[in-house]
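Researcher: I'm comparing several assemblies side by side, and this is the next one on my list. It has 703 residues spread over two chains. Same procedure as the others: predict the full complex and return the structure.
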Amino acid sequence: MYGYHGVVLIVDLTARTARREPLDVDVLRQFIGGTGLASYLLYRHCPPGADPLGPDNPLVFACSPLVGSRLTTSSKFAVAAKSPLTGMIGDSISSSFLAVELKRTGCDALLIRGRSDEPTLLTIEDGRVEFLSAAELMGLTTLETERDVRNRLGRRFRVACIGPAGENMVRFASIANDGGRQAGRTGTGAVMGSKNLKAVAVRGRNPAAVFDRDGLDEIGRGLSAKSLGPATEKYRTTGTMANVAVFDRLGALPTRNFRQSTFESADDVSGEALYQGHFVKNAHCANCTIGCEKVLSVGAGAKKSTGRMEYESAFALGPLVGVSDRETVIRASHYCDEMGMDTISAGVTTAWAMECFERGILTLDETDGLELRFGNSNAILACLEYISNKNGKLGTLLAEGSRIASGIVGQKSEGWAMHVKGLEMPGYEPRSLKTMALALAVSTRGACHNRSSAYEADFSNRVNRLEADAERGKITADGEDFSAVLDSLIWCKFLRKAFDDFWGESASALNLVTGWDVTPRELKAAGERINNLKKLFNIREGWQREDDTLPDRVLSERLPDGAAAGVGLSTDELELMIAAYYEARGWNEDGTIPASKLAEMNLDRLWTTAS
Amino acid sequence: MRVTVELFGHARLVSGVREVEARIPARADSSHIAAALVSEAPALSGVAVSEDGRSLMPSYTANLNGLAFIGDEPVSVSSGDRIYVFSSQAGG
């Protein structure tokens, strides 16, 4: 077999056993790798109704056929589990050396089930699996944990770990690797923490064979050259944080818990200001020519804080919480990375709490004395500390995420808890980005901007971003299928515009790695299949039609200012787009998948087996 | 028409200016924006504007007042309008 090992390594933390299970080539060809393979394994191995924080919820790390190929941006892996935030499919992508090293241990995926009796460091060195004590690692930040593990085992080991947030099972805890990269969304860090698993360290000497190395290297050279061209300029220069000021001008920058879509201090925390004031260097993932990561620094001496900055972190810890102080934005983002928390969920949940405080629904007693007002920089940083350590009344409440927290507090605060299916909303204002609105509402992992890239249509003349129409249905479905293939092969999303013919070039790359004869059509079908499988998982775990929606605020309040002043999104408009999406997907009007569609996607046997 | 063209991201950093004043026709397409930019901020040649000065680079887009995107089809422009020139890669 080329491109794969044909093996999933299944580790049971309860029994302290490990076994290698074969992966059928048909499965690999249908689900490819990355999120596709991870979703398949999750569907197969997660018992229906499993507690996301219980031992039966598997935690899956999945590589892809392109990992180890040396193609630019291909060193990525997916993480999947039943999400403790949504109770539905949770998956995220991270990057760099861990992906390569994990695959070199001789497996295409690692599936971890059970729960260890004591804090555990799981080591995998080629075929050998060991369960070591992680007692001395508990309480360490993600960077400290990675450093200590590699000092202990050797620098060739690569580490995936959780910080205190994961240890405390903060529902939006992340998994970190390779110096601060994060599998950020959907709370897989909490799942890892629920298993008493502090870290996974891998080292391997067994790369998967490549079918046509010379052919692959040739297309790799071409792709690398294109990756340094205009299609990736933003990512190579100021990075994604450049979105802050642009979105402000377009009335698409969620501000003060989505009450506004422009921020009067946007220029103070813009990407340009962050870059000019604090830029240190670009950082690259393994085998990446683009180098999108912007390392920023603030402070000096013992108070120096250095780490990566992306748009989503800048928005969530800046305009969304009313903060105009760059130092706070940078420190807050780095703190989340070190403690192992999703910056988006942390920021959005904090913003919800701020609005509760300002409305008098949360008192000083309930905020442990914090004046939790929009713009209070000290309160933001203190709040994040409470959350990550699950300290006090405030930390205990907010660690549950905005959906559960608002359910506990009640008093109609659910109306301004900005999540979909329990996953907090990213920095794209849906009322002024109508295609994105649909994608957020229907995404299988909750409010997600990465599983559809629907915003691309909104940032063009292809659609009128301020008006809803049925055309959005197919645009969103196609975008999801495209993204599913990106996330399963795995290519970095920032490379997507560098292709002249994405489907043709991707099929070629896959065939050169594997020796298969995959066609572009087959790849597209795989993308559709993967999205249908994720929906199937959600239906099995209790998805209801009303879960495909947007927060009350979005559907009832018009934007008050900026370029999109007066624009809203009605329930009727959203329902129109959702109906069009279901139709484009070939689903029933209630959003369920007809048996004929399951059969068309070769998913009927899976559904029957699992029912 | 007298408009203000605001630059973002790499274009702003390379040109050293946040915005420039420009005169463009009342019906303008992206080529007019490109010509105005290269005249007012020559450093943008080869960066945001093609080296022949006739078009925006594929990595850039122009937007009128935060609403319509300006491409090959002309749009109506009024004095006092603001044109935003930023990366065409919307991802974040």
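Model: For your comparison table: The domain at 1-210+489-541+593-611 of chain A is CATH 3.60.9.10 (Aldehyde Ferredoxin Oxidoreductase;  A, domain 1).
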